[in-house]
Amino acid sequence: MKFLVSVIIPVFNTERFVEKAITSALDQPEVVEVIVVNDGSEDSSLHIIEKLQEENDRIKIFHHPNGLNKGRSASRNLGIKKASSNYIAFLDSDDFYLKNRFKNDQKVFAKDHSIDGVYNAIGAHFYRESKEFERSILKLTTITEKVKPEALFEVLLHYKKGHFSIDGLTVKKSVFDKVGFFNELLPVDEDTHMFIKMALKTKLATGVIHEPLAMRGVHDTNVFNNGKLYDKLKVYEKLIFWSCKHKVSLKKIDALLKKYWMLNYQEGKGLKQSIMSWFSIFFSNNRILFSLLSIKYFPIVARRKSIFPFFYKNKR
To answer: Hey, CA dihedral for 180, 183, 69, 227, is it positive or negative?
Structure first.
């Protein structure tokens, strides 16, 4: 399979950054098209993109029906559907690639044809004043050591050896036939949800992890500044539902359930709320309802069995 890459860039009101993002993708010799999905931008982003398209026909622009703003997941999904290449990469419109972004990816795919994707490290570029601890934390977003594909699920689930960013991921387009598209009900953390699905059903390999191949743009309007949008419980609940539907092993579903219930207790959910969550999850999934997992994670039983001793110890 020839290594040709479609880069998908969702754009919403990033007039300050979008030209740099698109140009950095066009600068990569492996990139045959840059698919820009204008997600209902209200600033001059679309005008900038159209001007760039006049100069380079590798840029393809798409919109949601009626020019709606539908969010990052829907925009990436539209881009995937429109992509013509066998390999897909993503780039947020306030981020940018560095030189030789795909050079090592091509080697990894060529060496092992069973590999479905490669993940790499990214760094951070500050467009605002920054503090030392921020620069230290964001200096390198990466998996810190080489991980076997079959071990990646546990690594991502428990943040054992770091994590990677969507800007550093390259996958075969066929991956989405195996795991489906981005969940459009998640306004944020949709990438985490997707990465874990990929780790469960595909073969992702470690790429360049000790230096950045892309840069995250850090500025005052980053979406990750809005903590109210994040709902980890929702992310893992949807992963449990997806795993039951896609015949993931009960052992791995068990690990997802344990993660979900740990988050449940970390967020201070009471017994009544926990029981309601249990009913919602188990009665919607016959596969786990009629398994020992339904007993193991019933909140009253879990308390007695001390499945989560740290949390229960502090709630007595």
So the answer is: negative
CA distance 167 to 215: 8
Residue pLDDT, tens place only, 267-302? 888 889 999 999 999 999 999 999 999 999 998 876
pLDDT digits (tens, 9 = 90+) for 19-28: 999 999 999 9
Q: Note the pTM of the prediction, 2 decimals.
A: 0.93
Helix (H, G, I), strand (E, B) or coil at 147: coil
Beta strand ranges found along the chain (DSSP E): 5-11, 31-38, 59-63, 87-90, 96-97, 117-119, 123-126, 169-172, 204-206, 214-218
Nearest-angstrom CA–CA distance, 182 and 283: 25
Residue 290, classed as helix, strand or coil, is: coil
CA-CA distance, 197 to 246, in Å (whole number)? 10
Q: Are 205 and 117 in contact (CB under 8 A)?
A: yes
Residue among 298, 285, 300 nearest 250 (CA) = 285
CB-neighbour burial class of residue 286 (10 A; exposed 0-12, middle 13-18, buried 19+): exposed
Q: Which residues pair with 160 in a beta bridge?
A: 162
